[in-house]
Each structure stands twice: as structure tokens, then as C-alpha cells.
Amino acid sequence: MNSLIWPGMDKILATAAGQHRLPYGMSTAANETPETLGPLADGMGWFQLYPPRNPNMRTDMLARAREAGFTTLMVTVDVPVMSRRERQMRAGVGVGFKLSPGTLWQLAQRPAWSLEMLARGRPSLPTLGR
User: Fold this and answer.
1) Which 8-state DSSP code applies to residue 3?
2) End-to-end C-alpha distance for the chain, whole angstroms
3) CB-based contacts of 21: which residues, under 8 Å, 6+ apart?
4) How far is CA 79 from the centre of its chain?
5) What is the pTM of this model?
6) Digit-coded pLDDT (tens) for 40-62
7) Taking the CB of the first residue and of the last residue of the chain, which one, N or C, has fewer CB atoms within 10 A?
8) What is the DSSP letter of 7?
9) Where are the domains of the chain?
């Protein structure tokens, strides 16, 4: 979800990693596809797999990452149930965007980010959505 920090951030990070010969870790939850980020990382791509339950989806993700030039696999292991993320709950961060007076205030505090996000559209998870 790097593109919540700044729209297009996944591309920016992958490009910088490739240029400076540093590893770039693409998350399963990246806002771009492996096919987009792999060439930008220029052989320095590491693919972080948060294994989905569906084995066909898992196989597809791994094949796509390999074909896109990712050379290292990082596997994320987690607990079988969702955690209570108190800090995120207090901050109002969650799945699904809700427009509220508080959200409008936050958007007004960061006009450059707000305008860039408006121009590029809401981030999505294209690797998971196929």
C-alpha cells in the first residue's frame, strides 16, 4: 500500500532501487503489478508473497513475479485470524474509504497529496485482483 503514502510510490521505489542497485521488495499488496515493477527494479526485485489460500492464485503470482524479473522470494507467515489493530482503528484506517468531516480536514491539510490522489485515482491491489 505504498501508494497511500504518495500516489505512484511503488514505481518510484522500484526505479530508485534499480538505479542504485539496492533490493526492492514488492509486497503482495502493492498498488502495481509485478509486470510493471519488475522491469523498473532492473534485476533487484524481491517478491514478498503473502500466500493466498487459493493455490491457483499463488501459482499465478509466483509465475508472474518470476517472468517479470523478480529474483528473490520472501514468504510472509502470519497468524490464522485477523488482529485488532488498535492504532489503525484510532486513526480511522481501514478497508473502505469513508468521507467524513475528519477526512475532509485531513485532505485539506495535505493539498498536494490530495490533488495527486484525485488525479491518479484510488489505489488498488492488482496482483490480488486477477
Assistant:
1) G
2) 17
3) 44
4) 20
5) 0.74
6) 999 999 999 988 889 999 999 99
7) C
8) T
9) 2-116
